[in-house]
Amino acid sequence: MANPLSNEEEIFARIKEEKISVHPLIWQAIYQYVGDSISVINLIITNFVDYNEPIPVDDSRNILKHTGDIKAVFDKIVHTEKIVEREGIFKVIKDKNVTLDPLIKELFAHYIANDNCAINFCVSFYLDPGYEEEIPLKEAKKMLVHAKSMSDFLDKLREHTVEEKAC
Question: Is 18 helix (H, G, I), strand (E, B) or coil?
Fold first, then answer.
């Protein structure tokens, strides 16, 4: 799990106090893409951790695909100018110029990006081209902490932000 920011509680208090919101389109993209990928990662890892088994190479590749998906969505949500889609939710986000408040961006960068990067790094280490191997149980348990941390962060953010009406 990403180390808590030293001023995390103050940031969340400020978000609540200033009634900072996350646009419903961004929440939709987060839960449809990021949330689904986090869930898949959690399920894959939990399945092997519960049975005290290493994560096989094919399942590791699947985790790596989902960490890549999370990063791609994160980049679009944080940097809407990177959106190139011609249809769908990301096009609407770009067309409506929906952005994140800088405080929310900071939290996303710290919690989602760091935990996702930690999982990605671990999986990539064991999927070294030419020498792919299973992810040991000890490493899988560490990855599970990062995956659950991302879910917990999204829940906490949802609790502290006001619900904004869709336009």
Answer: coil
